[in-house]
């Protein structure tokens, strides 16, 4: 309420007022029509006629749409068989915008058209939502295009492992709501979840923690939050190369780009521990040179620090050449797995969040490097590390990205790269970080803790699982993230209080160029509370749908608070009456 009141007080821009007037012009009939598809399309109109699809409805499409035709075929497989019915044409029109689609439904013909396969695929998602269980479709027309290029979900499988099947179901669900980026948080202090053939210790050691199996020693102590075994029941706690490739292939069929994250230089305890074990083994075997090759820690490091999650040994010693070799080895293997899946790796997320103060100060190697370059601040050492990462990635043809900390540099590097801005909580001092970075030339993915952290509890209730360090996040939070109609503002502090107007006025607004650099939105499903498949589903849904609505549907522009409340009511009804029952009917339920 407070939030909407605050928005309502802001003056509309001329542009927003124009859109607002246009919105008003949308007839009640059209409003009802667009509400039949989630996320809401740009335009939809239906008439009283209907069209009938059957299990064996003919599909006419070119070879470039084989994947889409197969997808449609599996959709139709759930329908009854029968006589007659319509036929379906899938086609491309390179003149259209990327990802846009046109869906035309007449009694005897259904046409799905997109610029390429992705657009057609998006059209099929809308078709699936309109399709009755008996095969009926309302006749009419849908014209649609996304608001943001980046519409993502992040899943952290490091804190608690998620099985391949859980990941595939999450991808299916993302595709159904037209999300197109999967940020795969594969490593953290508590686990390393992808097998790397050249460095088997990464999973042998780094994928185990928590409650050990009988007769087994835990290699990593449980982090605070959960002492539960992070391995799937009977599972390995990591993805083999084949499993990872299968995930990449599945995502590709769904037109979802998988962005792998290898968190460095902090949040890296699993890797640091694993490489320490490797070092010890090789030393014991008398291979002194080999032992040093991939070491991530400095045995002489006396640095004293504490990470947010209370670790004292989770930061890589970034002055060591073995750190660069480690990164290069991992990146080369990961890139090869992507090639094997037929989905080239374009961008890698290097993490970079929450490096504890004090790291490197007691490391002779780090101190020597700082002295040699005349650097006075640890930040400069870190910027140099990032430059080296960037160079390693560039050699493999891969772009660099990271959490907001990677863009808050001493040398202004990182313009044009994707940066994930999470820390918009009131009192953080970073409330306008997204605006400043976008104005400064960075491509911003809004990942705001206060509205897009799906590991947070939905509400303040003893039975609701999840953190709440930046407030509670119910489905209305992602739905209510309406950036660009006004400066991007955090809506409340952790206590739910709206910020004081004078503090709001002091924040940096988005300038017109910065506006164009808000690349999109992403939901974050951190893993500390994601202890089971059921829990992953509970935390993801229905918040994911609120995110999709905001990321795909048109910028609502400036709106009167009453209208924002009406929008929410309409969306909540759509969820309850259509989307949640539809998810319940899925042939492959999550849990
Ligand atoms: C902060 S915000 C983290 C994660 C935690 C999460 C829990 C950020 C980039 N890092 O390491 O899992 O909070 O809510």
Automatic annotation (TrEMBL):
It catalyses: Hydrolysis of terminal non-reducing N-acetyl-D-hexosamine residues in N-acetyl-beta-D-hexosaminides. It comes from the Bacteria. GO terms for biological process: carbohydrate metabolic process; glycosaminoglycan metabolic process. Keywords: Glycosidase, Hydrolase. Its EC number is 3.2.1.52. The lineage of its organism: Bacteria, Pseudomonadati, Pseudomonadota, Betaproteobacteria, Burkholderiales. This is beta-N-acetylhexosaminidase. GO terms for cellular component: membrane. One of its GO terms (molecular function) is polysaccharide binding. Belongs to the glycosyl hydrolase 20 family. It is an enzyme of class 3 (hydrolase). The active site is at residue 354.
